[in-house]
Amino acid sequence: MTAFLLGTIDNGRTGHSCIAGFRACLFLVFLVVQGCQTGDVTGNRTPAFNNPTTVSQTPTDTSSITSVPSTTQPERVHPLLGTFLFIEYVTVVEGTGTLPELRLDFPRYIFNPNTQLLRPLQIPFPGLEKNDVGYLGIARQRKGSAGAGAASTIEIIAQLPFTFQAALFAGKFEQESEKYEPLNIVIHGFDSNGQLLASIANENVLLRSGQSWNKTVEAEMSSGVYAGHVVVEHKLINHGELPRENIQSR
């Protein structure tokens, strides 16, 4: 499958120790054991983390987002004192018919939409320094005939503006896999009302806390033994400025 552009996780400031390495090994062994204990009737391993709660299930505000001129400038480029910005780019692939069933595993974090708590699953987890802005989470999920499971990664947003390249389904397939193309996203900062100013494919938009930019792309696959319908939903979610205390330790 065409690779997702997940970004680089900054672990340089977290340090490594023998204890952290030992704990990481134990955690990986636990995941392997959990994965071996779950399976489907075909004998294929079902991901240990195939519960959709491992991908943010926030009931996001899907009302129309506000487009603004490209000359619009942010009022501030730092979150409020004692808070951090958390944004996610989420891709959900769902299919019907007969499709290649791909399985995802090993999410690196869990975000609870009710408590707004961010819990790390990655060891070591990239910690925020005093002047860091927050986190970008990249999450993927597959459902239905398209497969199962969830995977995610997370990286630090050190400062604004912050630019990253996401993946957008191109509406076609290559070698019986979805073809993705780059989607350029820039997070500029906050307006006077605390809304997030972002550029998505060169369009400037404002996202309220809890609001998301959404794009759904559908396509038919007919190749060899496969014949089905694929729906790929993309979301850029602004979870807003959250208390730093909401970052849980393992």
Feature tags:
250 residues; six-stranded mixed sheet; 8% helix; five-stranded antiparallel sheet; 1 helix; disordered N terminus; 13 strands; globular; mainly beta
Summarize the structure.
The chain has one helix and 13 strands; from the N terminus they run αβββββββββββββ.
Question: How would you describe this structure to a colleague?
Answer:
With 250 residues, the protein is mostly beta strands. The protein has one domain (18-246). Helix content is 8%, strand content 47%. The protein has one helix at residues 18-36, and strands at 66-67, 83-98, 102-104, 109-112, 117-120, 134-144, 147-157, 162-174, 177-190, 196-200, 203-207, 212-223, 226-243. The strands form 3 sheets. The chain has a 6-stranded mixed sheet, with no helix packed on it. A 5-stranded antiparallel sheet has the order 1-11-10-9-8, with no helix packed on it. A hairpin with a 4-residue loop joins strand 4 (109-112) and strand 5. The longest helix is centred in the first third of the chain and has 19 residues, at 18-36. It is globular, with a radius of gyration of 19 Å. The protein starts with 17 loop residues before the first helix and ends in a 7-residue tail after the last strand.
The low-confidence parts are: 1-54
Strand neighbour order, sheet with most strands? 3-7-6-2-13-12
Could you report the average pLDDT, rounded to the nearest whole number? 81
Q: How much helical structure, as a percent, in the residues?
A: under 10%
H/E series, N to C? HEEEEEEEEEEEEE
Q: What amount of the residues lies in strands?
A: over 45%
Q: Tell me the domain tally.
A: 1
> Which structural category fits the helices and strands?
mainly beta
